Amino acid sequence: MFPLKETVFHHLGRYLLHPSNTVWGMIMRYHNSYLAKSKERIGIQVRIFDWAPISAEKSYEQIVRCTQQELILPGVNLNQSQISPSTSAEATAKTVLLVSLYGEIYERLHNLYFVHPTTAGEMISVYQPSHEEKQQTEKKFHNYKAMAEIWLLSFSDVLVTSAGSTFGYVSYGLAGIKPWYLQSSIKGWNIQNPSCYRAASIDACYHTPPHFNCKTGGKADPRNIVRHVRQCDDYTHSPTVKLFD
To answer: Are strands 196-198 and 123-127 parallel, antiparallel or unpaired?
Structure first.
């Protein structure tokens, strides 16, 4: 049924996870207003965890390093604040969809490309659908917006997501593309080198997999039983699993 094992979540998710009419309306209105006409859509999803704290400023700097080093977004000319008419007429339009609970990261990234021209003349637009500041799962409309933003991210041509984020997993799983993981600050990892790295699989990471061996009735490590099941490449500080080809 699934010749490519890492596509299981992608196919099942797109087949089974259908937004309600209310959520789908939010998705299409935002997409048609801000994303539809872009030549390239770049999704950036940022989750800051209590167990891996990082300031908004450091997170912004990490995003800029990652996207510019990996040629996802162009560099800017910090010494120039006005684009020349000769480049604007032939500019390539890229749209960045930034999804985060926090507004400060968006403001910094938006201002970077609003104030300064890019080095090659590309036109970069940056949008953020919402910034709730904190997770509010008890509120229905908050969850509506979260689901809408997951689907909007799934329309991206390139995705950059926070390592360890289930929000990001679902987004790139639905998109069917391998994201760039923003390195976590947990355990003293240096988030500057590298700032991000490419995922090895499009499957979502299972943080709490079952450890039951059906044959023996005892505990077992699923990574040692099934060939396509291995340790997650973004969440390695506990036994986690995902599918690889």
So the answer is: unpaired
Q: Which of 130, 140, 53 is nearest to 99 (CA)?
A: 130
Q: For the purposes of burial, counting CB atoms within 10 Å of the CB of 37, is it exposed (0-12), middle (13-18) or buried (19 or more)? A: exposed
Q: What is the dihedral of CA 153, 31, 62, 183, to 10 degrees?
A: 0
**pLDDT score for 89:** 43
- CA–CA separation, 152 vs 173, rounded Å? 13
Whole-angstrom distance, CA of residue 106 vs CA of residue 193: 23
Its pTM stands at 0.88
Q: H or E stretch including 141?
A: helix 140-154
Predicted local distance difference test score (pLDDT) of residue 170: 96
- The residue extents of the domains of the chain are 5-200
Interatomic CA distance for residues 129 and 132, integer angstroms: 10
CA atoms 93, 30, 195, 170: torsion sign: negative
Topology classification of domain 5-200: Rossmann fold (3.40.50)
At residue 49's C-alpha, the angle toward residues 47 and 54, to 5°, is 85
- How far is Cα 42 from Cα 49, in angstroms, rounded to an integer? 23
Q: Is the peptide bond before 129 cis (omega within 30 degrees of 0)?
A: no
84 vs 189: CA distance, rounded Å: 41
